[in-house]
């Protein structure tokens, strides 16, 4: 079963510039792939997505179009949007659609409550999220 | 009868003098007044340049080509080349452009204000207003660059900034090399890319 979650409640303009910072960027010109590695931080508006590596996939053939179709982040991925934070093993960020799909023991923390599940689909445009797969809510009982 | 003969021979004698003179006059107009243009071939080097070349062994519009072990072709052209008196392997070149045709496709065009071609260490050092343009969509600038002549390897130790296929890029260093049959471009020491989705033709759904 799934749980609808408010995610930051912020309407994110998906045409804002996307900034990607990392330790290194490895481009395979023959295969046309580009992988950011080491403390990768993707920022767009209020959203920050950090991971250990992010691969960029271009729309259309090869890198010539210059249009990024999606970015796949892997390795302790954390996404922060407003005062919500979500952690997972992997995240696929589709810039044009303004959606982030996080998979692999996802934990979404909102204030003191935390939600865990297998897949969290976030729509940055409407600021909503959908958690699916063995969704469990974890209440922080003790005072932190 | 005699008078008429006398006049005739005088006319003939007189003509014998006048006619050759006229012929001479016509002939001279052929040479003296003829058009001088294109007569002598102008030398490619003026005397001054010849002395300068001999004295400083400075060469105009040199070019250099070599094939790397892993199959890429490098050609270097410059406006001027001056051998380094201290080291015969080194030649200082100015306003140089270098083209690296990568095995497996793709091309890298380098240009710089100054450079040093070191055939001893098989290396081309570039300095000043360096520009790196690759067919894979990178157009970058840096201040110092080393390009190997015997291997596909271009290294920028200083900051690199410019355009990447997806947007503006800045990095602490850059290295282009071949790994097997793949041409790899690695930016390191801190990389930042800014991608602006709105500036691209967003297609039908673009606002």
Automatic annotation (TrEMBL), chain B:
InterPro entries, per the entry: LipoPS_assembly_LptC-rel
Source superkingdom: Bacteria
Pfam hit, one: LptC
Keyword list, A-Z: Membrane, Transmembrane, Transmembrane helix
Membrane-spanning parts: 12-33
Protein name (database record): Lipopolysaccharide export system protein LptC
Lineage per the UniProt record: Bacteria, Pseudomonadati, Pseudomonadota, Alphaproteobacteria, Rhodobacterales
């Amino acid at each position: 079963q799934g749980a609808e979650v408010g995610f930051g409640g912020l309407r994110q303009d998906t045409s804002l510039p996307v900034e990607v910072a990392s330790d290194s960027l490895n481009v395979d010109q023959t295969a046309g792939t580009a992988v950011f590695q080491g403390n990768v931080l993707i920022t767009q508006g209020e959203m920050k997505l950090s991971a250990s590596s992010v691969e960029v996939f271009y729309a259309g053939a090869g890198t010539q179009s210059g249009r990024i179709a999606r970015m796949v982040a892997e390795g302790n991925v954390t996404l922060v949007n407003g005062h919500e934070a979500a952690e997972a093993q992997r995240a696929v960020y589709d810039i044009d659609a303004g959606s982030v799909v996080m998979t692999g023991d996802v934990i979404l923390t909102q204030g003191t409550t935390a939600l865990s599940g297998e897949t969290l689909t976030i729509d940055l445009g409407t600021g909503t999220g959908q958690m699916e797969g063995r969704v469990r809510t974890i209440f922080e009982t003790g005072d932190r | 009868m005699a008078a008429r003969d006398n006049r005739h021979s005088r006319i003939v004698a007189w003509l014998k003098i006048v006619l050759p003179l006229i012929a001479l006059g016509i002939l001279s107009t052929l040479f003296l007044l003829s058009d001088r243009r294109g007569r002598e071939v102008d030398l490619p080097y003026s005397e001054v340049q010849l002395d300068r070349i001999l004295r400083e062994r400075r060469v105009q519009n040199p070019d250099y080509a070599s094939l790397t072990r892993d199959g890429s072709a490098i050609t270097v052209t410059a406006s001027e080349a001056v051998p380094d008196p201290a080291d015969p392997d080194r030649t200082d070149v100015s306003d140089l452009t270098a083209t690296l045709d990568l095995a497996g496709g793709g091309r890298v065009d380098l240009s710089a204000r100054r450079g040093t071609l070191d055939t001893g260490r098989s290396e081309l050092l570039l300095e000043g207003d360096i520009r790196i343009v690759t067919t894979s969509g990178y157009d970058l600038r840096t201040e110092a660059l080393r390009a190997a002549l015997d291997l596909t390897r271009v290294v920028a130790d200083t900051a690199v900034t410019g355009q990447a296929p997806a947007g503006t890029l800045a990095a602490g260093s850059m290295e282009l090399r071949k790994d097997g049959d793949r041409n790899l471009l690695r930016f390191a020491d801190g990389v930042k890319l800014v991608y602006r989705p709105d500036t691209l033709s967003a297609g039908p759904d673009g606002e």
